[in-house]
Amino acid sequence: MKTALIIGSTGLIGSQLLELLLDSEEYARVITFVKRDSGVQHSKLKQHIIDFDKPEDYGNFVVGDDFFCTIGTTIKKAGSQDAFRKVDFEYPKAFSTIALQHKVKQFLIISSLGADANSRNFYLKTKGEIQEFLKNSNFENVAVLQPSLLLGNRKEFRLGEKIGALFMKLFSFLFIGNLKKYKAIQSAAVAKAMFSIAQENYKGFHIIESDTIQEIANKK
Q1: pTM score of the predicted model
Q2: Alpha-carbon torsion 180, 186, 191, 195, what sign?
Q3: What is the Cα 194 distance to its own chain's centre?
Q4: pLDDT per position as a tens digit, 70-110
């Protein structure tokens, strides 16, 4: 059985993914890196409370098979573009570098539909830049999941997401054909797909867009 590592395990997708990992027969051990005690207890779980600005201090703990990165924020919540970039680029970059040094085989990350290193949108540009960094890494497999608008119960209120979710529900019938990938998706479906992709033993670099994420989640 495998060992899973995860950053972002207290977030919307991460918390649901953590449940899947702990309940799974595929993983004998699950290692999380968190800012504060999550309160989750399980015989498989090893939680490390760390300073994310000093990831190198915890490198010896980054040992396993599959690394799941579900960490992320918004510019509004972070407080500035620099603070946002730290969470969505610097932290994944640092942990992926350490994971690669310790011969972790797979790195799976939640990005965003439309992520592009050349985008004029700072959010999408940052997401695209971490994708490009991982594309040039030497993991056996890198899977980048690009969900559309996420549906689910966040701990914090996001007005834009609430409005977007209402719009998606009212006009979901419009999202067909080439527009299908823009349809809102449940966070639980993303977590389920992320887990499933990790079991497929793909090789290389893969971007999985939202409609394909939904299809993968529907299979099992």
Answers
A1: 0.87
A2: negative
A3: 8
A4: 998 888 888 899 999 999 999 999 999 999 999 999 999 99
